Amino acid sequence: MSRVGHERAHGAPPAASAGSVRAVRSGRATAVRPGRTTAVRPGRANAVRPGRTTAVRPGRTTAVRPGRTTAVRPGRTTADRPGRTTADRPGRRGRLLVAGPLAVVPVLLVLGAVLPPSAGAVVAGTRVRPADHPAVVRLADACTATLVAPRRLLTAAHCIPLVTPGRTRVRIGGERLRVVRVARHPRFQYLAPTYPAEPYRDLALAELEAAAPVAPLRVSWRRVRPGGAVALLGYGTGDPDEPRNFGVLRTATLVVRDDRTCRRALRRAAVGQAEQYRRRVMLCTQDPDGVRPFASGCFGDSGAPLLRGALDDAPEIVAVDSWGVACGDRDGDPEVFARVSAERAFVEAADPGWSTVAIEQPFAPGPF
């Protein structure tokens, strides 16, 4: 599910209004009243009394069996098994709890509006020194972004609502630079009116107040063939069960999957996911050897670059982390990225649609 589903953010974003993402703070739980949706803060479970129902999506309720608890984590969802808690994580690494038609947006890799980022510090990854990869940065304490021009950061569109132009700062090359304006892909949207809804054309740009004191990474406009090895580099959590562990830079090697293999794996991992995969603008990866622990992006990795080439030898960005199901925990479920080769006009545009005010999530009634 989308990391609005892997979208777990660390910081406390601005208070959400109707139609926007609701922040979920970690370490606390909230009472659930019949007929209402509530944000559940990570790390605690909500007790539900026998015979009562808990509102999950606007206008709908879900029966909860007596004697069981449900832990809701932003950005992702998992099966509800007896004796265990159910993680509801926003779109690939972190779901966002929403007030509106999308009561819960699938796992996106963002941490921001919900929890500490999870699209994460790359599950089953290797820790690396930020100083060796200065162009890859933390964004809004919830996502990852990459410098692609002296003043321009590339990230996931579903992360942009966590950024406030004029206030949000990015630490890069030893400096803290303010973001002065943002742009989201004009065709960005979620692919379903209800959960699980994944992001489509999930790319965005953020412009800094001054040129960063580090060299940008190159963007590759060539498609990556199935079977090719790629590397994910992100600040997301390295443990699907600890979405708050955001902020450590890690990398992992992944393999690009063909469309048929990807859809089959998504269908096996969760209902409703395979149908939202769009091969022209999305790229699918999995752990290369299929052995636990499965390498994958996770909470907080939303917006992280997928790289072709050795990390120490001018790697190129081929995609941006977008969404997933369970951070690889469901038998190596796939991680889905936004292809940059399909979005060259947007990434290179002099004016991609800049905004100097915060951009809200595009939640609206009815089908998208």
Automatic annotation (TrEMBL):
Comp. bias (Low complexity): 11-29
Molecular-function GO term, any one: serine-type endopeptidase activity
Entries under InterPro entries matching the protein: Peptidase_S1 (IPR050430), Peptidase_S1_PA (IPR009003), Peptidase_S1_PA_chymotrypsin (IPR043504), Peptidase_S1A (IPR001314), Trypsin_dom (IPR001254), TRYPSIN_HIS (IPR018114)
One GO term (biological process): proteolysis
Gene3D superfamilies (UniProt xref): Trypsin-like serine proteases
Composition bias type Basic and acidic residues, residue spans: 1-10, 78-91
Region (Disordered): 1-52, 65-92
PROSITE patterns linked: TRYPSIN_DOM (PS50240), TRYPSIN_HIS (PS00134)
Transmembrane segments: 96-115
Key words, A-Z: Disulfide bond, Membrane, Transmembrane, Transmembrane helix
Domain Peptidase S1: 122-360
Similarity comment text for this entry: Belongs to the peptidase S1 family.
Protein name as catalogued: Unannotated protein
Native species: freshwater metagenome
